[in-house]
Write a structure and sequence with these properties.
The protein is 35% helix and 23% strand. By secondary structure, it is α+β, with helices and mostly antiparallel strands.
Amino acid sequence: MEASPVWLQAQRDELEFLGSGHSNLAMERDVTKPQEPLDDNLHAVDPDYEMLQCPRERADELTTVLAEAYPTGGDGTPWTVEKTTAALLANECVPATYVVLFRPTNQIVATASVLRIPRESGTPGAPSGFYVHWVACLEAHRGKGLGRAVVSRVLKHIHSLGPDRILLLTQEFRVPAIRMYRNSLGFEPCHLDESHSARWGALLAA
């Protein structure tokens, strides 16, 4: 089936965002090295939460979570239901978007996606391969281990596809997330841009 113009535009926006090495830092998880087991057991965190793949009909709730964490998406414009659907839920380069549901209110409160950049679409700032993508959690539900759990689920999904490494892109000010990626999920700094070595050095020395 031919990709729609909306999907094609969303994909170009995503790749442009990921390739902007001046605004992002890269991290990688080496799948070939021994790592601590991934724990995506939400019941151990709190039985009021459950995890599932996001159905397209809940794009409005997913948009709310993304918009709180990232006021604008990769194209610099605010998140909308159409944009969320095109970039994540109807994007063949995003094979899965996982969400955490808060059972008492039946509300989506956290999310993370699997992104696959095809070989022909890779750039120096965003090499081809698999990424942990658009990780977000509503502020009222932070500090409970939901981010670690949903990213662990994404990592398990990617591991099943057999890559040698898994990438993610982040920014310096997301210090709590960077600590989680390094201390709990086996990610280490990765220098995809000539500026990354100095920027990582300053961040880790702080």
